[in-house]
Amino acid sequence: MTPVPALHRNDCEPLQHSSCSESVVVRRTRTNDIDTHTAQLQDWELHYDQLDCGAFEGCFTDIRWPGMQLFVEMTTRRLRQRGHLLPDSFGIGTMLDGDGSLSVNGIRSGVGTLLTCDSTELDLCTPANCTIAGLVVDADTLHEAAESMPDLGPLLRPDMLLAMTPPEALLAPWRSLLLSSVQSAIERPWLLHVPGVQQQLRSDLLVHLIEAMAGAQRADQVHRAGARKRIVDRACELMLSQPDEPLSLFEVCSRVGASPRKLGYCFQDVLGLSPARYIKAMRLNDVRRELACGDKPELSVYDAAARRGFWHFGHFSADYKKQFSELPSETLGRARRQIGRQTKPPVNSSAAAAH
């Protein structure tokens, strides 16, 4: 396999390399802030929440030209990613590495699975130390490429998720071409401006992709996974609707029509966490997101925590530090310093010299 650029713990300061023109974009970003990482996903409407404990580091490589986007994403923490890809497109990806399996719209998969979904909805739970690579292609282009496969074309429709397991002999050429194309674009971005290179690369990637799909076993679990996911989504909506007076587990179970045991199984299968652990992680993420804005002079850590139902400040502070590897006061202080640097007027060099 073509090697993917490594993400090292001593190289986690925010940085960005980019080469952009009217029709070609080549970018690589690296950051240790989850919201900064999410903001770099241009044209993708995705919302990230951290589910496990530890400092976040993320790297995103983005290669795009009209009709196609290649990407490689590396993240160190366990995440839930929700939202949409580019409009009128399909996303095709595979996990290259990770400390466990991932779940996409309720379907669990691992290394070697080829996942295809349209832009309608994406709900992705990734493991820690995860690397995902793939492409986003115009829906019309993918449908045209799939015309040679009568049994595949009808499946490529809105709201459909395909989880395929191609033989390694068929998946490896596509994966290798994808990663070598990303590496070449980073090292020699001018290549994508050469006449015919974009078209040839698009054609090669689609040919290898369709060959992999043709020989793949497809997971027949979409409807069952969808039912589990609907239970989880409804339960999350109920449990997060009243943060200051949360519903009890039995009230939630009664409203979604599931026993506590069944609800626990659904959460573990879709999100990999118990209901209580997941809701606590979401509330901590909400607090961190408000503190990280730092745009309200009157905001206090206690107020932000209390609004999410954290009444014991000592326990909250310990839980927050365990989740994000820093105290809540450190998150707020850093955000306010950043705002201060952005709003501070520039120094007049001539006036400074006069003094």
Mean of the pLDDT scores?
83
Q: So how many helices?
A: 12
Principal-axes shape call: globular
Task: State the secondary-structure class.
Answer: alpha+beta
Number of domains: 3
Please characterize this protein's 3D structure.
The chain has 355 residues and is an alpha+beta fold. The protein has three domains: 15-220, Jelly Rolls (Sandwich), CATH 2.60.120.10; 222-272; 275-340, Orthogonal Bundle (Arc Repressor Mutant, subunit A), CATH 1.10.10.60. 42% of the residues lie in helices and 23% in strands. The chain is built from twelve helices and 14 strands. It has helices spanning 34-39, 139-145, 168-187, 197-214, 222-241, 249-256, 260-270, 275-293, 301-306, 313-324, 328-343, 349-354, and strands spanning 15-20, 25-31, 45-50, 58-65, 68-75, 79-84, 89-97, 102-104, 107-109, 114-118, 122-126, 130-138, 161-165, 217-218. The strands form two sheets. The chain has a nine-stranded antiparallel sheet with strand order 1-2-4-5-12-7-10-13-14. Strand 4 and strand 5 form a beta hairpin. Helix 5 packs across helix 6, helix 5 packs across helix 7 and helix 8 (275-293) runs parallel beside helix 11 (328-343). It starts with 14 loop residues before the first strand and ends with a helix. Mean pLDDT is 83; it is low at 5-16 and 350-355.
Name its key features.
12 helices; alpha+beta; 355 residues; 9-stranded antiparallel β-sheet; Arc Repressor Mutant, subunit A
Outline:
42% of the residues lie in helices and 23% in strands.
Helix and strand arrangement:
Blueprint: E1 15-20, E2 25-31, H1 34-39, E3 45-50, E4 58-65, E5 68-75, E6 79-84, E7 89-97, E8 102-104, E9 107-109, E10 114-118, E11 122-126, E12 130-138, H2 139-145, E13 161-165, H3 168-187, H4 197-214, E14 217-218, H5 222-241, H6 249-256, H7 260-270, H8 275-293, H9 301-306, H10 313-324, H11 328-343, H12 349-354
Helix pairs in contact: 3-4, 5-6, 5-7, 8-11
